[in-house]
């Protein structure tokens, strides 16, 4: 039991922990979420508030571990020491889940073998959380500009701007350990915020690289389960190409010298909308459509009242078809509002919209 004694006597500390919106409850659960979103730091901070002799943290990626003996000895060790809270980080099902008052399984994909186990997702930083991490902000507009460059991973929030690309590429190598995975992700980065199918991705890549369609489909499924990629459906057309979203918007942007501002804004807005309105969709003419409230959102970074009125006038047929009741225009810095017939049109800066309560 030497390895268990070592873990029991030395629990890592969440040095420099910054409070998140997520709170870990006192019961058994599966804490899950995409890579590098701060799951380990959250659980270590939680453990730091428990009596030292009543807790046990084990990182199953620790290279010193012998999984076979660990699985065989763990339950007896818990019983002998009266341990009440056990955390198995990077849980992959390789050892049986132990029995105690509280067991926390930490994983990327949700652990579905026990359908009665409560789930708690740890998403990337939203803009409000980023402000608590970053601490350099002077003005919201400036902070949002930094957010676009650094992304939504906690580890990146305080990185100096001169090191951003280097550090983002380090995250890519960690999240996508093989060259083929990085090749696929690099190609997908070009489609950020755009409708695309898995077959279109395969067709694009195979022109220059030898790749198996079966491997590509399996990999995409794995990335979906780990929430690395997400998809938004087209309204009324569930079989049409879905809009591709990537959980962190700065990582794909770091792969090319030319930046896709619209792709990043689409990704940020889409993820926020889907978290609060899972039925959010899009159409060929409307960037985001919320069918339950008949609310439309349009991305127009440099909009003004005149250009917006002209744009909406061209959307009359689409507005009538969808029975849209109100329209929000998301800009970089401008704000204004007016009535278009019986529809209220409100324009607001992106950085104020993403801080609004739903």
Give the number of DSSP strands: 13
Contiguous low-pLDDT stretches (5 residues minimum) are none
- Average of per-residue pLDDT values: 93
Biggest β-sheet, characterized? 5 strands, parallel
Structure description:
With about 350 residues, the protein is α/β, with parallel strands linked by helices. The chain has 3 domains: about 1-120, Rossmann fold, CATH 3.40.50; about 125-260, Winged helix-like DNA-binding domain superfamily/Winged helix DNA-binding domain (Arc Repressor Mutant, subunit A), CATH 1.10.10; about 285-358, no CATH class. Helices cover about 40% and strands about 15% of the residues. The chain is built from 14 helices and 13 strands. The protein has helices at about 1-10, 40-45, 65-80, 125-135, 140-150, 165-175, 180-190, 200-205, 215-225, 250-255, 260-275, 305-315, 315-320, 350-355, and strands spanning about 30, 55-60, 85-90, 100-105, 120, 195, 230, 240-245, 290, 295-300, 325-330, 335-340, 345-350. The protein has a 5-stranded parallel beta sheet. A 5-stranded mixed beta sheet has the order 9-10-11-13-12. It is globular, with a radius of gyration of 23 Å. The mean pLDDT is about 95.
How is this fold's topology laid out?
Layout: H1 2-9, E1 29-32, H2 39-47, E2 55-59, H3 67-81, E3 85-89, E4 102-107, E5 119-121, H4 127-134, H5 140-150, H6 164-175, H7 179-189, E6 195-196, H8 198-206, H9 213-225, E7 229-232, E8 242-246, H10 250-253, H11 261-276, E9 288-290, E10 295-299, H12 305-313, H13 316-322, E11 326-331, E12 336-340, E13 343-349, H14 350-353
Parallel strand pairs: 1-4, 1-5, 2-3, 3-4, 10-11, 11-13
Antiparallel strand pairs: 6-8, 7-8, 9-10, 12-13
